[in-house]
Amino acid sequence: EKQYDQVFLVSAGDIFSGNPVVDVYDKKGYPMIDLMNRAGYDLTALGNHEFDYGQAVLAQRMKDANFQFICANINTQNTKLPQPKPYKILEADGKKLLFISLIETGNEGLPSTHPSKLKDLIFQDPIKSANQFTDMAKNHDAFIGLTHLGLQSDKRLAQKYPEFDLIIGGHSHSFLDSAEKVNNTFITQAGDNLNYVGKTVLSFNNDELADIHTEVVNLKKSKKKDEEVASIIKKYNDNEALNKIIGTAQNPISGKEELGALFTDAQVEMQNLDLAFQNNGGIRIGEIPEGEITVKTIYQLDPFGNDLVKIEMKPDEIKSLIRNGYKRRNEPNMQIGGGSYTLYLSDEMNPERITIKNEAGKKLHTDSSYTVGLNSYVYKSYKFKHENNGESLNSTTAQNMINFIKKKGRIDYSGVKRIHIKKEE
Fold it and tell me: How far apart are CA 203 and CA 211, in angstroms?
């Protein structure tokens, strides 16, 4: 602010979920809103995780914010959620900067959150929705996308609409140390977890946008801090319930397979199930370090508050679940507890055949039914065969893990491997 004539501070969305201090606060999400207000944010995109606490909580947090939420491809008319403006014009030195925001709809036409959180909301295709606003570009000094689409979709947006001067993106957590240029559009993104801040400088020559320069600033190298804000952060972090020690990791628990094994074993043992599955996308940290495990660690691993659903399934139905997970990411996506499975892939990397074994190493019997635990997001969002409707066990997957670790005391998942891939001959 000392260096430049005008500075705006914006967010590309996903300000909630993943930090237990924010997620389990009495007023869910409020600590982040409080700190963003103090930082002086002007504007934020609406991200998919803004819906994780439900519409009523989101509506209240939008009221608490001193900055504006925008989104051009959502319709809230049948809900109590306030209708976000599709765009916002920020003015500086007589220049008008038009920001338009778009949210991803990759989960069967919905943003990637629990479908129950999106009841009665209507989402339009984001790329098509942008078409309504491109004519406005010529009446403003800069046309900027503040998007929550992911880098590849941002590139498609720029390819289709060269009217964009700049796209500041989120969702894919991409780190671009310098902007990518598609057509004449600069695309920038600054990773995640506030490790970096993206800095974009717009330079004007009279009334013309003459230059765009982007860089990312490593906040870990910043020596200065606001003492008042630091004390507020310390107060939020001083949470006795979250800091409680529940057990010990004898070795680091690293990667999707080891963390997924802990995740699913807890569901199997605490709820007396035959098998349990967990999607990779719901495993939100990369490692539990060796040593003491706190409640906070488990909520960082599993922040979404999903209930565990018990469902009776036959092996063919379980295989359809595994296949659907694979197709979503073109790689194994369902971690397993209570057994293991092997994918036999053709040259097209398509699971032609799947074998599933129990913990004793025996194949599941074709005609038998097994009790399977799934988190409520997978149960609602994934497309798989199941005649049984399933029932909620009224226990969250995170709470089952907390109880499991308390019961075991010391846990070790180093080297665990339950998913195997072989080439189909």
Answer: 5
How far is residue 355's CA from residue 192's CA, in Å, rounded to a whole number? 37
Q: Which helix (H) or strand (E) holds 45?
A: strand 43-45
Contact 308, 288 (CB under 8 A): no
C-beta separation of 384 from 330 below 8 A: no
User: What DSSP string describes 69-102?
Assistant: EE-SSEE-TTSSS---BSEEEEEETTEEEEEE--
Strands 253-254, 95-100: pairing is: unpaired
Q: What phi and psi values does residue 269 have, to the nearest 5 degrees? A: -75, -45
Backbone angles phi, psi at 246, to 5 degrees: -115, -10
Decide: 28 and 117 in contact? Cβ < 8 Å: no
Please give the model's pTM, rounded to 2 decimal places: 0.88
Burial classification of residue 141, based on how many CB atoms lie within 10 Å of its CB (0-12 exposed, 13-18 middle, 19 or more buried): buried
DSSP class per residue in 216-267: EEEGGG-----HHHHHHHHHHH--TTTT-EEEEESS-EEHHHHHHHHHHHHH
Q: 19 near 300, Cβ under 8 Å?
A: yes
Q: How many CB atoms lie within 10 A of CB 193?
A: 9
Both tokens assigned to 70: 């925008």
Which tokens go with 100?
């338009």
Task: Give 152: exposed, middle or buried? Use CB within 10 Å, 0-12, 13-18, 19+.
Answer: exposed
The answer to whether residues 148 and 51 touch, using CB atoms and an 8 Å cutoff, is no
What is the C-alpha to C-alpha distance for residues 398 and 300, in angstroms, rounded to an integer?
10
Strands (E), 80-237: 87-92, 95-100, 122-123, 142-146, 166-168, 180-182, 185-188, 196-205, 208-218
pLDDT tens digit sequence for 328-363: 888 999 999 999 999 998 866 678 799 999 999 999
Q: What's the chain's length in residues?
A: 425
Whether residue 276 contacts residue 336, with contact meaning beta carbons closer than 8 Å, is answered with yes
Query: Beta-carbon neighbour count of residue 222 at 10 Å?
Result: 9
Q: What is the pLDDT of residues 365-417, one digit of tens each?
A: 999 999 999 999 999 999 999 999 999 999 999 999 999 999 999 999 999 99
Q: Are 393 and 310 in contact (CB under 8 A)?
A: yes
Given the DSSP bridges, would you call strands 185-188 and 166-168 parallel, antiparallel or unpaired?
Answer: parallel
The Cα 390–Cα 381 span in angstroms is: 14
- Characterise 14 by phi-psi region: left (phi > 0), alpha (psi -120 to 50), beta (else): left
